[in-house]
Amino acid sequence: MKNSRLFLLCSLVGLVLAVSVSGPIYSAADDDSMLARYGQYGGPFSLVDHHGKIVTDRDFLGQYVLIFFGYTYCPDVCPTTMQVIGDALDALGEKGRNIQPVFVSVDPERDTPAELAGYVSHFHPRMIGLSGTKDQILKLADDYGASYFKVYQMPSTDAADDTEDGKSDYLISHSAALYLMGPDGKFITLFPFGTSSGEIAQGVSTILEPASQ
């Protein structure tokens, strides 16, 4: 009887180990592959743009991409940074024609394609707004080293201060760097929050000049 129980126990342990081992196994080579393909920051993605079209990282190959993570309900940092991006592109003029500005929403619950369309159109005609599922955004933000989290507000005593659908009940605290990716999809540099439009234009111009020679 004891031998039968021991055999059954061993069989169950072996089955558990077999199931565990047969699943996907993490390898440091995964990180090495990502580093080789994208550089210090960046990663693959498949998101939805402000027209409702599926867009992937491969669609931007051949262009310089200036990426910013934010959200449309942001009261200060986002509109300020978006304006800086637009001004930098205007300052670059024809030289910056191959730079694609991209706004990635970290608030997929509220930032629908329609919401993004109305927002990005205020800052630059070439601006693309992207959003997706919570998991998709979290994965991409992690690939870029961008962080964000919800900050819930105290309920307002003035009904006029709140939207009817309750969309104003939280803000999102988030990092606000700009990431410049190259035509090959690899990371080139980042501009910290607070970098002026002139500094961005100068920095990008310096990068573009060797490429045009």
Q: Which percent range describes the beta-strand content?
A: 15-25%
User: What is the first-to-last residue Cα distance?
Assistant: 82 Å
The profile of the biggest β sheet is: 7 strands, mixed
- The Cα radius of gyration reads 23 Å
Can you tell me the residue ranges where pLDDT is under 50 for at least 5 consecutive residues?
Answer: 1-27
Overall residue-averaged pLDDT value? 83
Number of helices: 6
Assign an overall shape.
Answer: globular
Helix content: 25-40%
For this structure, what is the CATH class?
A: Alpha Beta
User: Helix- and strand-based class?
Assistant: alpha+beta
In the CATH hierarchy, the third-tier topology is known as Glutaredoxin
According to CATH, the homologous superfamily is: Glutaredoxin
Order of helices and strands: HHEEEHEHEHEEEEH
Count of strand segments: 9
CATH architecture: 3-Layer(aba) Sandwich
Strand ordering within the main sheet? 2-1-5-4-3-8-9
Q: Count up the domains.
A: 1
In short:
The protein is α+β, with helices and mostly antiparallel strands and 213 residues long. Helix content is 38%, strand content 21%.
